[in-house]
């Protein structure tokens, strides 16, 4: 491409290897309003990788600093200067490397990767610098050179240095076009929230979470035993119907079916009169049969021991002795976080598991979550007077819903009726229909329809709001949170193959996104507020984990009571940024373990 050739010809950069020149450049750059920043390292782990190059650039010139031979401390004042905007692609990585390996903080960030994610939520996941260069600049960047930095120990080639320089220079024109588009789409405030969150997430990853290894192994072993016990119960039920040899050479009973083989399970179940279309959890849960229930129980134990077990312990960093998950700020198209390597958001909520996650010696865990926040958001958005009054009066909404649906006094509501009401309250937010609800409640679809009709006769404003936002999502091609965050959908033309299914999907997401997305925004503001307050108060405290509406911090023991008060106050402040008609309730606790 001509543009690529032009970029190569005009790449202006300087390789800095002398301390005197480093100081001159740092001084000269201190007057710049915007700087591009990038890091090349020997690996991706900030605790074990070595920083090789640090690139800092103006719009027309890049300075490439050899981190292997230079003391880069003169750059510290540039990185921490809040009056200088720092451009980066995947800034969390650069922040982590600069903080862990160079001991510097980076403030006032514009992340082109996050900006693109905000602009294209729901329609694209390709936010790589190569993709952005192609989209905004019509320039093709080769990323093959990046791999040459891994475990690199030799002198840098001209190709490597030019690659490093281009990586920061292209950020300027990309940022200009993104910022213009963000403001045009009303997404600038959302993008600024994501940028402010970068240092918090980077620090969260750097700190990591401590695990009681012995306790964890004990829990997993217990679940393995339970899985084996349930497996033997299933084998015993199926053994009388088996056509195969049931003992080995030594006369010991053997398994008659491989429970990990869907085809074998289906065949074995048919012999006992349980004819299933598949062995999926959704299918098994629809059958009131002992074998189906045992199979579901076995799957639950197996899932935990397989997904976690020793696999979780293998993620413990050898240098820190802690797990350091990778948090994706916009992991879901609603704006929610996602977590991987390991995914601590999938740790079961039972205390058996969470008790294994502990505070460091001399520290406490300070944990807080929003109480029924998604229901409060739905109450605020719909303006339903019964919903709103229930939260203002601090009434059990699920019990109240059951009372009104079944015409039973509030004090006489059974656990079963409350569970039915709770299932509907939460199910509606996820766009669930009568069939899905019927499966969960163990009733027919017709009975589920009657329950829904009773529900909507009580909460008319909720129904009107859900109907309206689902239609708007289809009509406008996007759904919106209270902060203005947009989740885009593909345009659907009537008559297109699968158009009805696509419309139904958009309608479901149209109901869910304003609620779940607003909850995500609230938690993100909470993290930023809490982090800034901790620093302002001079506390030895750091957020180390978040699960949707929950924030976990690790705090010096003698500061824990002050920290939990700050956590509750700042999370409430974040919630009150959005909710004007219902109160925000935050429950905090100080503990040695990850309580919920």
TrEMBL record:
Gene3D superfamilies for the chain: 3.30.70.370, 5' to 3' exonuclease, C-terminal subdomain, Ribonuclease H-like superfamily/Ribonuclease H, Taq DNA Polymerase, Chain T, domain 4
Domain DNA-directed DNA polymerase family A palm, residue spans: 350-559
PROSITE patterns, per database record: DNA_POLYMERASE_A
Biological processes annotated in GO: DNA-templated DNA replication; double-strand break repair
Enzyme Commission no: 2.7.7.7
Pfam families: DNA_pol_A (PF00476), DNA_pol_A_exo1 (PF01612)
InterPro entries, per database record: 3'-5'_exonuclease_dom, DNA-dir_DNA_pol_A_CS, DNA-dir_DNA_pol_A_palm_dom, DNA/RNA_pol_sf, DNA_polymerase_A, RNaseH-like_sf, RNaseH_sf
Keywords: DNA replication, DNA-binding, DNA-directed DNA polymerase, Nucleotidyltransferase, Transferase
UniProt-listed SUPFAM superfamilies: DNA/RNA polymerases (SSF56672), Ribonuclease H-like (SSF53098)
Top EC class of this enzyme: transferase
3'-5' exonuclease domain span: 13-183
Reactions mediated catalytically: DNA(n) + a 2'-deoxyribonucleoside 5'-triphosphate = DNA(n+1) + diphosphate
GO molecular function: 3'-5' exonuclease activity; DNA binding; DNA-directed DNA polymerase activity
Family, similarity comment: Belongs to the DNA polymerase type-A family.
Protein name: DNA polymerase I
Provenance organism: candidate division CPR1 bacterium GW2011_GWC1_49_13
């Amino acid at each position: 491409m001509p543009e690529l050739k032009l970029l190569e010809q005009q790449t202006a950069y300087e390789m800095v290897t002398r301390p005197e020149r480093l100081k001159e450049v740092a001084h000269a750059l201190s007057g710049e309003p915007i700087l591009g920043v990038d890091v090349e390292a020997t690996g991706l782990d900030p605790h074990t990788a070595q920083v090789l190059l640090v690139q800092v650039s103006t719009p027309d010139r890049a300075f490439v600093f050899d981190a292997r031979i230079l003391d880069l401390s003169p750059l510290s004042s540039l990185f921490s200067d809040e009056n200088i905007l720092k451009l980066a692609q995947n800034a969390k990585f650069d922040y982590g490397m600069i903080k862990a390996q160079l001991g510097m903080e980076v403030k006032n960030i514009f992340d082109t990767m996050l900006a693109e994610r905000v602009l294209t939520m729901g329609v694209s996941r390709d936010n790589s610098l190569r993709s952005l260069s192609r989209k905004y600049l019509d320039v093709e960047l080769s990323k093959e050179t990046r791999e040459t930095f891994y475990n690199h120990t030799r002198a840098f080639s001209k190709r490597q240095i030019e690659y490093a320089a281009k990586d920061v220079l292209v950020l300027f024109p990309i940022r200009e076009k993104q910022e213009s588009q963000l403001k045009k789409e009303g997404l600038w405030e959302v993008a600024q929230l994501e940028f402010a969150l970068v240092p918090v997430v980077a620090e969260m990853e750097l700190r990591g979470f401590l695990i009681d290894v012995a306790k964890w192994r004990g829990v997993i072993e217990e679940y393995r035993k339970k899985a084996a016990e349930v497996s033997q119960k299933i084998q015993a039920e199926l053994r009388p119907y088996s056509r195969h040899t049931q003992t080995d050479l030594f006369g010991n009973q053997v398994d008659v079916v491989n429970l990990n083989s869907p085809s074998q399970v289906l065949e074995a179940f048919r012999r006992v009169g349980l004819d299933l279309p598949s062995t999926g959890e959704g299918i098994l849960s629809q059958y009131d049969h002992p074998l189906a229930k045992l199979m579901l129980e076995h799957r639950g134990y197996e899932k935990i021991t397989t997904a976690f077990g020793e696999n979780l312990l293998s993620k413990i960093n050898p240098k820190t002795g802690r797990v350091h998950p990778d948090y994706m700020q916009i992991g879901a198209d609603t704006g929610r976080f996602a977590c991987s390597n390991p995914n601590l958001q999938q740790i079961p909520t039972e205390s058996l598991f969470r008790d294994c996650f502990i505070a460091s010696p001399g520290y406490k865990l300070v944990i807080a979550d929003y109480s029924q926040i998604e229901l409060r958001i739905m109450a605020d958005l719909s303006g339903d007077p019964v919903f709103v009054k229930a939260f203002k009066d601090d009434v059990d909404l699920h019990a109240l819903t059951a009372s009104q649906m079944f015409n039973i006094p509030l004090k006489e509501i059974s656990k079963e009726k409350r569970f039915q009401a709770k299932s509907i309250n939460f199910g509606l937010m996820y766009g669930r229909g009568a069939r899905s609800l019927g499966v969960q409640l163990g009733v027919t679809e017709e009975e589920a329809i009657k329950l829904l009709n009773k529900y909507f006769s009580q909460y008319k404003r909720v129904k009107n709001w859900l109907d309206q936002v689902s239609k708007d999502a289809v009509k406008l091609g996007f759904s919106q949170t209270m902060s203005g965050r947009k989740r885009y959908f593909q345009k659907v033309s009537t008559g297109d193959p699968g158009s009805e299914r696509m419309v139904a999907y958009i309608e479901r997401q149209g109901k869910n996104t304003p609620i779940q997305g607003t909850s995500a925004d609230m938690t993100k503001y909470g993290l930023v507020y809490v982090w800034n307050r901790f620093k302002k108060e001079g506390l030895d405290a750091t957020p180390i984990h978040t699960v949707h509406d929950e924030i976990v911090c690790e705090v010096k023991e003698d500061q824990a009571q002050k920290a939990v008060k700050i956590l509750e106050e700042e999370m409430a402040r974040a919630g009150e940024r959005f909710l004007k008609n219902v109160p925000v309730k935050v429950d905090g606790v100080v503990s040695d373990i990850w309580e919920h």
